[in-house]
Amino acid sequence: MYRDRIRLAALQDRIMSADEAAGLIRDGMTVGMSGFTRAGDCKAVPVALARRAATDPLQITLITGASLGHDTDKILAESNVLARRLPFQSDATLRRKINGGEVMFIDQHLGETAELLRSGQIGPVDIAVIEATAITETGGIVPTTSVGNSASFAKMAKQVIIELNLNMPSGLEGLHDIAFPVQRPYRQPIPLIAVEQRIGLPYIPIDPSRIAAIVITQRDDSPSNALPPDAETNQIAGHLNALLEREVRAGRLSPTLQPLQAGIGTIANAVLHGLADSPFHDLTMYSEVLQDSTIALIDAGKMRFASAASMTLSAPVYRRVLDNIEHYKSKLVLRPQEISNHPEVLRRLGLITINTALECDIYGNVNSTHVGGTHMMNGIGGSGDFARNAYLSVFVTKSVAKDGKISSIVPMVTHVDNSEHDVDILVTEHGLADLRGLAPRERALQVINNCTDPAYRDSLLDYYRRACLRGGQTPHVLEEAFAWHTHYRDHGTMLTPAGKPANEPLAA
Amino acid sequence: MYRDRIRLAALQDRIMSADEAAGLIRDGMTVGMSGFTRAGDCKAVPVALARRAATDPLQITLITGASLGHDTDKILAESNVLARRLPFQSDATLRRKINGGEVMFIDQHLGETAELLRSGQIGPVDIAVIEATAITETGGIVPTTSVGNSASFAKMAKQVIIELNLNMPSGLEGLHDIAFPVQRPYRQPIPLIAVEQRIGLPYIPIDPSRIAAIVITQRDDSPSNALPPDAETNQIAGHLNALLEREVRAGRLSPTLQPLQAGIGTIANAVLHGLADSPFHDLTMYSEVLQDSTIALIDAGKMRFASAASMTLSAPVYRRVLDNIEHYKSKLVLRPQEISNHPEVLRRLGLITINTALECDIYGNVNSTHVGGTHMMNGIGGSGDFARNAYLSVFVTKSVAKDGKISSIVPMVTHVDNSEHDVDILVTEHGLADLRGLAPRERALQVINNCTDPAYRDSLLDYYRRACLRGGQTPHVLEEAFAWHTHYRDHGTMLTPAGKPANEPLAA
């Protein structure tokens, strides 16, 4: 039944088991694997590699699109296969090894990895392992539910292993648009000027002689682990919708808005869901990942087209989209993440970007990655690509975490991923800070008054006022700037036993 | 003698005094003025405005390209004319008012200001004041030694005041290339694919009916205040040249390198001077400012073409270039800063960018702006535009400042302008850290061992090792992270009386 999916007959004799294919990967190699936010990842070869490592230890550099499903990062980390990992991950076990210094993790802007590989500044990729729906008559690879960096890996790797996943409907062919920036010098403009435009091929073109193995699989993607909207995320969505309505009334936006981007995860997904109840229409999306919210907006007739590098859906929505792929294919396109996240295209299209902050400070600097300034959560992902080049850069977060023991708004963030220059709007369930055109001292009052949880608000205002006595463009009391964080580290809460934030002056 | 420079006869009756023209500016207005890194600034109207404010107080929002010459920011600040200032400045008096909270300073990526104005998210500009070499038959404005944001201001302002500077040679006409991104939706690609390419007009096209005043001036630009190369900047240049030679040998660069960018100021200028002694040839530049070093490389036959938004030269070099402008015009072009700093063009061309760090931390995060984390120096300028989109992002700094009392390499920077993600190479006089493809723990050892002054090296290593005991992707001892900075603030040095950095454990 799978032979009709390998349309170049000469490749049929490359079919082998996952264990045999994994045998091509040798100690010290750099391996590029498909997979972006759990979608379209390889499902057999990495597991076989981990199995083999139990008796034949080896270590590799693993490059992917973004995070993987099926506990693959966990399994590879536990079997000590990972020496180096880039550019993103979201697995608890791997995270522990990264933070323990056992795995070197290179946290990159997701739009830059392919460029760095192409210029030889990282890599080279020895072997690519790519999940496919089909192989064309010319040996071209039709991806599955993500493109990510797969096209770059396949193009640059010395050898390519294909995982042909029979659970993926053949109708996925035609969903993808594969294009690369041309090599320098005299690189040409990327011709993309509209979200729905196709500028490349529906498959990854490669020399079929480099296809070293084809492994047959039959397994669905891991479902999205985003939580459904709740009261607070609905409030965040409400504040953002109100802002966008004001922008439309002011004539700065049309009711179709600008193309939307939303980061992976619960809050950004919930905010996008909130647009279903908005007066906006004919929306478009130009993002790195499509979540349930995108499909909901399309189904509701609110969104006319969405472009991304992957689609990461809950189990029922995944089923519905794949079973009706011919319907959805006219409204969706999946591109390489170098194109979905490319500064050239993003600045040209002018997006409204919605990304999640781990914490934000009173001046609007955003920490997207490091808990307590030191411990990696997932990675910067595409937040930097999108926020820097946005028409309107929105960051969202709940005002507190851990039942109020952590304030997401702090005097100074312990790590900066997206600086004040790239943060236009901050939204929590309490309200929205519109920071456009404001100096830091003005930004601080907006953030403190509009976004902070009441339990922390007076204390932040007190910090800010005392900082202003010392002067500066961006006033701070350096010796107190991280007091909440060290108190949390030592006591499990940013609050004192009296219920006050831990930087309150002793005399107060 | 100046009437032949106003080639649209109908405009000749708009000539008036600077005082009369300044009278058009009213309290509360937003004024866009030409001027970028001291070049091509308005030389008469701002002074007249300050004079008037002595008896007729008024406050404005002043937007420029970048910094101004002729003490204009000082004069305007002292006369309390400035309520708000963006996107850059470098004046000591204005800086004091900014840090005192008296002037609201909005520190922006220099490539973004025009975009924010165009979309109505800042502004609108009431009056533009633009220095010109000539006015064409159609009323087009021929700029002088900078373009900066002048073209955007002239296009968007309700009224335009022109300062026609007779000291500027008529031969400057033809030096400029004025083009804008097209309004959305369906914005087209910017067609620039080579440094020397012209994509626009040699003048700023505007409706002449909006030209409200023409003021005749006769004054040179303020000379550059960059210092000549010294022993340490020569060492920095040597380390960078050695790296570039290694890159050429590795086949990653050709001997013509990639187009170069260098930030304003002494160190970047000196590093560029150092390329005169390199084996590279047929160099090109795509920068925001041309300094003496660019002219020296052109004169030496090392550089074949340079593109920027302004040229800021020392007095003798300024004289030589203006007196021989027909010769230099075939090797130079000045563009709007939106184009010189545009992410689309920068990522496409693939630059080697050289920018100056105020301080850098052991993980390669760069503070470009805030002394002690709080007090503004000049502004982020174009460093973010260039570093983020670079082929190779280099930051340079001397390892110490204030006779060794400040280490430019610190445990944690007190403000982040350019994050680890955007810093590939760090160079001091002691050596070079090649951070490409490295995880933070690996970056730290490179930075500490290669770039730090010996007086601070052991202490940084000790900080790093103790931080690692606490774990993390980016290990820190939060409560000590700013100890050097607070010690400097309180004692005027980062060193203890024993000559050790101030975070040494007490028992040591």
Automatic annotation (TrEMBL), chains A, B:
Task: Respond yes or no to whether keyword ATP-binding is given for this record.
Answer: no
Q: Which InterPro entries match?
A: AcetylCoA_hyd_C (IPR026888), AcetylCoA_hyd_C_sf (IPR038460), ActCoA_hydro (IPR046433), ActCoA_hydro_N (IPR003702), NagB/RpiA_transferase-like (IPR037171), Succinate_CoA_transferase (IPR017821)
Instruction: Enumerate the Gene3D superfamilies for this protein.
Output: 4-hydroxybutyrate coenzyme like domains, Acetyl-CoA hydrolase/transferase C-terminal domain, Glutaconate Coenzyme A-transferase
Q: Does the keyword Aminoacyl-tRNA synthetase apply?
A: no
The Acetyl-CoA hydrolase/transferase C-terminal domain covers which part of the protein? 320-463
Choose any GO biological process term that the UniProt entry carries and state it. Answer: acetyl-CoA metabolic process
Q: Where is the active site?
A: E288 (5-glutamyl coenzyme a thioester intermediate)
Q: Where does CoA bind?
A: N378, G382, K402
Report domain Acetyl-CoA hydrolase/transferase N-terminal positions.
Answer: 14-215
Entry's family note = Belongs to the acetyl-CoA hydrolase/transferase family.
Fetch the NCBIfam families from UniProt.
YgfH_subfam
Protein name as catalogued: Propionyl-CoA--succinate CoA transferase
Q: Which organism is it from?
A: Cupriavidus pauculus
